[in-house]
Write a structure and sequence with these properties.
Blueprint (H helix, E strand, L loop, with lengths): L1 H20 L1 H13 L2 H23 L1
Length: about 60
């Protein structure tokens, strides 16, 4: 459980870096995401999950 909470905390820190460092670029990224179709957003989400699972497998096995 400690590792899960640590991973969640690290994810929140990393997710907060871009809006903190460059709010204008963060806004542009979200305007581009709003222009994407549902299928494109799903593909990005699936790719992100697959990359995360691959990283977990490589680092913890």
């Amino acid at each position: 459980m400690d590792r899960l909470l640590g991973a969640l905390a690290l994810m929140l820190v990393i997710e907060g870096l871009m809006p903190f460092i460059s709010p204008a670029a963060w806004r542009q990224v979200f305007s581009r995401v709003l222009a994407m179709t549902d299928g494109q957003i799903r593909f990005v989400g699936l790719s992100s999950m697959a990359a995360g699972l691959l990283m977990l497998y490589l680092f913890w096995s």
